[in-house]
Amino acid sequence: EPEVTQTPSHQVTQMGQEVILRCVPISNHLYFYWYRQILGQKVEFLVSFYNNEISEKSEIFDDQFSVERPDGSNFTLKIRSTKLEDSAMYFCASRNTGMTGNTIYFGEGSWLTVV
Amino acid sequence: KQEVTQIPAALSVPEGENLVLNCSFTDSAIYNLQWFRQDPGKGLTSLLLIQSSQREQTSGRLNASLDKSSGRSTLYIAASQPGDSATYLCAVLDSSYKLIFGSGTRLLVRP
Known about the structure:
Chain A is an all-beta fold. Chain A contains no helices and eleven strands. Chain B is mostly beta strands. The interface between A and B is medium-sized, with 24 and 21 residues.
């Protein structure tokens, strides 16, 4: 079964460093998402992306975050200057259009630890 | 703004018991509702997805119901087992096609 894949599975970075989290969505999907889950808290929506543009973003998704689809397969989340409070699990997700378009598929997540 | 609430926050039951987890949402304009399982430090495993036009879905010992008009869903787990211990998350797909999650119910099934 097709799946969303994320790399790295775990990354430790120093405060102030830039981090890029990578995702390969399911190949025929056109809508992409990033979600975040701080340890012990809710899974929170960060951003949705379609047709090379941000469709919607949450209040969390401030200027230090950016997303990009650099080629036909990857979807990335960049955090420009990491803070301690960015430590969380980041989930990438994707969905199709049409009849199957309201099922969102999640990757296994990328643990980010900022020290 | 859509908000999803799950009750109880935590639940501890002896093995073999049947149990019900509750989820409520404030805006009935949803496309579907999904129940996930999350083990500590792990990703999200989709258990059941109920389309907005459906009333329930079943998979093995799990049954989920949806009452869209009242903004409620329940997840029924029959004959619980220690392996069912995990956090169960409810999420609704809102009108802009993003999932809104509840805080989850932490379930412990005692042998």
